[in-house]
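Sample intake sheet
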Amino acid sequence: SVSAAFLEHLQHLGLQDFPCGLGSWNKSRFNARTSPRRGQMGLQEDPAGQEEALLLGEESPEVLVELLSDQHSPWAPGPHCSPQDQHLREMAVLTPELVRGSNVFQLFKSLRIVGKGVEEVDEGLLQLQQLEELILSANQISRITSANLPRTLKVLELCCNAVTDLQDLCTQPPPELQHLGLGYNRLCGPSRDKYLTADFWPNLISLDLSFNSFTDLLGLVSQLSSLQKLRILVLQGNPLALIPTYRGFLVDSLPKLSVLDDIHIGPDERRQCRGLARQPELVRSEARVVVSVGEIKGVPDPSTLQQLEVDSKAAAVTYSFCVMYKF
């Protein structure tokens, strides 16, 4: 689940272990009881306390933070440590009470769990009440229960998963979502239930549906035209992108669109495509692909084999070859 992967990530950060957290390396810097004014452990400000800390063999905050950033330190950030992770580690040195227990959940505005084998978006994610960006790419998610998504989400990236439909995601979608990334999934459609409309995504600015199995361009455009705030759209890699008038039809049908398939839509292109939206008959439901194979190496020549078999009195041997094209 997502929450299990998140907790594993927290353990990897070592927020409660040296040089972070509370321990013999810094305990005299913090009061034993909670400060009534700040609601957290307060720092001692008298110089005598600092001298005593040195006598006890404790490290200063500056030294502990340096251990987290020095490239030669055993506690240096790894190659996959994000700026947010490093900030949390430094907070665990300077204000360890803020990253203890459930407090740490309130510090996350962005969460990135990529390639961790996650299958379930569980309700534990709701503990991240300040979360605005959730990236769950390259996992094994087939269903997304929207009730388990924080309502504060503005970015949801689900690229390279196994999502087949949007029904569960659209039950209670985050109302402020601005980007929805569903590229490299198994979506077909558009669905009869019209899940790609402003009824579900009123604030959507960016939508990535690339490399799925969308074939009905007219049906998809009828839904996307209701997304009044949509400015960025990615549809490349779908069968409908093979239609000759594909780009021009979209440019004219969605006049507020600024970028299509990572290519900016300029005034000249919009002028050239003017009127295509009123000619749906140009959008064909079929496409023909011609593939020419110039040369094949490493297999016997069938014509030579057939001649040898004709001249030979031995039992005939039949060869068959299968050529597969994946689009």
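Comment: Confidence is low (pLDDT under 50) at residues 32-51. The two ends are 32 Å apart (CA to CA).
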